[in-house]
Amino acid sequence: MKKAACAIALIATVAGMSAFGQAKYAADGRYPAKTIKIGVETFDPSDGGYMGVQSYLKSLSKGIFNVEFIFSERIDSAEQELQFIENCAAAGAKGIIAYYNVSKGQAVAKAAELKMFYWGTAEEKDIYDQYKANPYFLGSVILGNGDHDGMYGVTKALLAEGKTKFVYANGGADFGITMFVNRRLGFQDAINEAKAKGARITATEVPGFPNEAWFAAQGAALAGDIDAVVSSFGPEVWIQPITAAGKARAVTIGSFGAIGPSTVDLFKGMYASGLFSAIATEPTERFGIAVAMIVNAAEGNAAALKKNGEATREAESLWVITNPQDLAKIVDFELGAGRTAYSKDLTKLVKSIDPSAGNATLLDLIKGFSLETIRAKK
Amino acid sequence: MEDTLNHDEPGRTPDGAPKKRRRPSAAALGELAPLLGLLLISTLFLVLTEGRIFGPINLRSLTNQELITALVAAGAVFVFGAGAFDMSMSGSLCLTAIIGAKVAMATGSIAAMVVACVAVSLLIGIVKGLLAAYVEVPFFIVTIVIGVFLGALGLLAMGKETVLTISALPRIRDMTPINLGSLASVFLGGLVLFNLTSLGKSCKLVGGNERAARQSGIDVRRTKLLAFLVSALTVSIAAIVILLRTKTASALTGGTVGTDIMVALVLGGMPLSGGPRSRIGAALVGAATITVLNSGLAIMGAGPGVIQGFRGITFIAVVFVASLSYRTRLLPR
Questions:
Q1: Helix (H, G, I), strand (E, B) or coil at B249
Q2: Model ipTM?
């Protein structure tokens, strides 16, 4: 009798413990059991780079993490940004991923005030220093001076091909949008370097974003004597006009852009035809790290990933792809098994899943999406 | 002696013909449409968001979000009421905020920032008012040009900076007292000015029929100038609130205000052509409607496309119902 009772108690305890362990996961295997809402803020929802990030985040929410994203509309002022953060708080969000920031520290302070974890903005050193000890500020994986370096790298690639007559699409630089201002600086630095070495370079700017006036300016630029187009946003709006102008063999494009299912064939074709030379693209994987860090923080374990109790500010370069071989490697990673494996590894950042999660784990994952690491993969 | 007094017989006109009955339900519905629209949307989102939209956290954020549109729209009632179609509100707000921010950064003084905002905004208002009063060109074209010009001035004022951050300003955790105070004072002042003073009445008459107003002895030019000054004052208050709340200014500050106030006024039941149907309350009701709509959809996690679509449908519905009240009685100009 006593033995039977002990056996029953033992079985019940083991079953209870398993049930408790399984209760951390949702029924479909995603983690955690209870959905976590995360707000994602952007400047332009139609931007190619942002759409790539959005697609990646949605794939994470379907397969790995039980998260629901609240994507912002176009945000182009501080008031709209704070409004979005407040709306996310009202919706029950636990964190904000700042793909964009306009009100600087005010956004971080507002998120912290509303008890939401803020991931982003660590590239702004003064903001980082001000909030690094704030428990609600997670920091971010920064791209160094990614906007500047990306446009610089793309322009250098075109200069290396012997291009000397440039058209530069400056996006929002004239509106004072930091990202585009930095990209223009990158372009100008590369051009000025070449000029300092004696090269005779001409550069015409096409300001703003595609609208009627912009297309008129684009037409006027293409009608001139040019051999290269550098674009601070996606290259798609240049392909057909260049071809229609009969300059497909003479003009090469370099730009920022996003590698994804809808663009990979386009880029492969353009590299093969010689119309395209270089693309600077943002590794979307750093936003996977953002999701994992917010999930971890929402469970009260934010400190586990911090170094010296301070928010994250680790740098990794964006991908500047200047040849078809690198493009093939990146495409294999982004659209193949590489990203899937990387995404599963993100759970190592959640202490409730992996008790050994720490700052070292974070650094390993950051290195895991570098161009050098991807190139080295077979 | 023949009784020459006009005793109206119920149901008959003075000459004995039967009176046509007015349709009170359509007219009343049209008058109440904006308020009904606000109540309907509020109730809908109260249910859909399980009460979160009017929870304590979000109520504070609703006042934050509604405030700028409501403040600028309250002043715009005078301008639009007087028949002037002003497309340069965003530019005015942006330049005012930028100059105010630069003064605050240079002096570290909130008082100096307030003075700068008021001075710049009034100067812009005077220029617009004089142009409206003396330039014989369709005014909305003039304001489009002014808006672009003000935006360019703002960029020049920004210089190499992309965002002006005013570190000298203290961070105000709870803007609610400032929000409610400024909203209440602007609307109470606006109500008195628009409904009980000669300025307000003149605005409505000028907006209704400028020639008739002039022939009635109203100084049309003076009325327009004063209307723009009132509008400029509310723009300056909005700029000050933005700077206190965000502690930043950029070339994109107040970027959508111009469109938002027009939508707010229409949703609030005021025709953008102005005239006697202009009302201050339209600014408050319309701004509240937009704010509740935006907030509710955002809380529900609706994507940008859904939010835009919903806004469009609401706009069309409210405008259609509101137009029932004046469509059949619109006097030709």
A1: strand
A2: 0.73
In a domain, B109, yes or no: yes
**B295 falls within a domain:** yes
Predicted confidence at residue A19, as pLDDT, reads: 45
Å from A71 to nearest chain B CA?
6
Mean pLDDT, consecutive 10-residue stretches, chain A (378 aa), reads 57 48 76 94 80 89 93 84 89 92 88 95 89 95 84 94 94 78 94 95 90 87 93 86 87 84 76 83 89 96 92 87 84 80 91 92 88 80
| Cβ contact, residue pair A175, B301, below 8 Å | no
The predicted pLDDT at position B13 comes to 62
* Cβ–Cβ under 8 Å, residues B284 and B268: yes
C-beta pairs of A6-11 under 8 Å, 24+ apart in sequence: none
CATH number where B240 lies? 1.10.3470
Closest by CA position to B317, among listed B46, B30, B83, B49: B30
- What is residue B329's predicted lDDT score, i.e. its pLDDT? 41
- A115 in contact with B, Cβ within 8 Å: no
Residues A229 and A187: beta-carbon distance below 8 Å: no
Dist. CA B79–CA A254, nearest whole Å: 49
Find all residues with CB under 8 Å of A122, minimum gap 6, and list them: A128, A139, A140, A141, A142, A311, A312, A313
Nearest CA in chain B to A108: B246
Q: How many domains does chain B have?
A: 1
Instruction: Please report the domains of chain A, with CATH numbers, ordered by start residue.
Output: 36-143+284-316+356-369 (3.40.50.2300), 146-281 (3.40.50.2300)
Secondary structure letter of residue A307 according to DSSP: B
Count of residues making up chain A: 378
What phi and psi, each to the nearest 5 degrees, are found at residue A39?
-85, 140
CA distance A177 to chain B (A): 6
Angle ∠(A319,A321,A322) on CA atoms, nearest 5: 150
| C-alpha to C-alpha distance for B95 and B97, rounded to whole angstroms | 5
**Partner B, chain A 54-83, Cβ-Cβ below 8 Å:** 68-74, 76-80, 82-83
Q: Alpha carbon B22 to chain centroid distance?
A: 31
Distance from C-alpha of B292 to C-alpha of A96, rounded to nearest angstrom: 22
Chain B segment 281-310 residues within 8 A of A by beta carbon are 294-295, 298-301, 303-304, 307-308
In chain A, residues with a C-beta closer than 8 Å to the C-beta of B242 are 78-79
A178 touches chain B (CB under 8 A): yes
A173 touches chain B (CB under 8 A): no
Residues of A in contact with B299 (CB under 8 A): 87, 90-91
Cβ contact B253–A177 (<8 Å):
no
Segments of chain B scoring below 70 in pLDDT: 1-30, 304, 318, 321-333
- Residue A165 makes CB contacts below 8 A (sequence gap 6+) with A201, A202, A224, A225, A226, A227, A228
Residues A71, B303: C-beta atoms closer than 8 Å: yes
| Parent domain of B206 | 27-327
Determine contact, residues A131/A108, Cβ cutoff 8 Å. yes
Token pair recorded at residue B111:
């008082």
In whole angstroms, give the CA distance from residue B316 to residue B311. 9
Position B256 in a domain: yes
The answer to whether residue B236 sits within a structural domain is yes
- Chain A: nearest CA to B30, how far in angstroms? 32
